[in-house]
């Protein structure tokens, strides 16, 4: 039984190499806390990552607010969520309103990266005069919702990122 528990290192071909220039690395190399107190709390830092921009998120948020969000009647630019296609994660809506009754349904006046299929009108019931058109992701063609006759989009097959 002891022989069966032994590990045979001969067939292990994993040999990790650590070389200079690796992008993903810790920011703290070593922390020294000696008993004397002289070096206590001293940290050796690596150079900052040249690919990391600490202001990028704030700049992206400002760009979305300036370019993609429309002000409401009080001149406030807000949204309940950013909606993405469930098939390919492409953003399909930057400004929407959550449905009051159905928590997984959203209403929007504008969508992005979508196509509206007006070749066939859809209805909710046989004698219902309201007509809807399928809304699909332009990238992967997944159905993400419907557009009503007034041009309002009802999105319910989406992934939301709460704003």
Automatic annotation (TrEMBL):
Comp. bias regions, Basic and acidic residues: 39-54
Classification via PANTHER family: E2F-ASSOCIATED PHOSPHOPROTEIN (PTHR15967:SF0)
Pfam family, one: Eapp_C
UniProt name for this protein: Eapp protein
Name of the gene: Eapp
Annotated region (Disordered), positions in chain: 35-61
InterPro entries: E2F-assoc_phosphoprotein (IPR019370)
Cellular component terms (Gene Ontology): nucleus
């Amino acid at each position: 039984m002891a022989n069966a528990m032994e590990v045979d290192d001969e067939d292990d071909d994993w040999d990790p190499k650590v070389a200079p220039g690796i992008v993903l690395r810790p920011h703290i190399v070593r922390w020294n806390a000696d008993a004397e107190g002289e070096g206590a709390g001293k940290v050796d830092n690596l150079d900052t990552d040249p690919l990391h921009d600490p202001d990028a998120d704030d700049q992206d948020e400002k760009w979305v607010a300036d370019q993609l969000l429309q002000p409401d009647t009080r001149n406030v630019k807000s949204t309940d969520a950013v909606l993405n296609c469930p098939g390919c994660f492409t953003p399909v809506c930057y400004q929407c309103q959550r449905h009051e009754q159905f928590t997984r349904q959203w209403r929007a006046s504008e969508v992005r990266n979508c196509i509206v299929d007006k070749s066939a009108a859809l209805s909710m019931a046989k004698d219902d005069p309201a007509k809807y058109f399928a809304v699909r992701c332009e990238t992967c063609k997944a159905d993400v919702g419907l557009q009503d006759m007034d041009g309002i989009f009802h999105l319910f097959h989406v992934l939301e990122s709460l704003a």
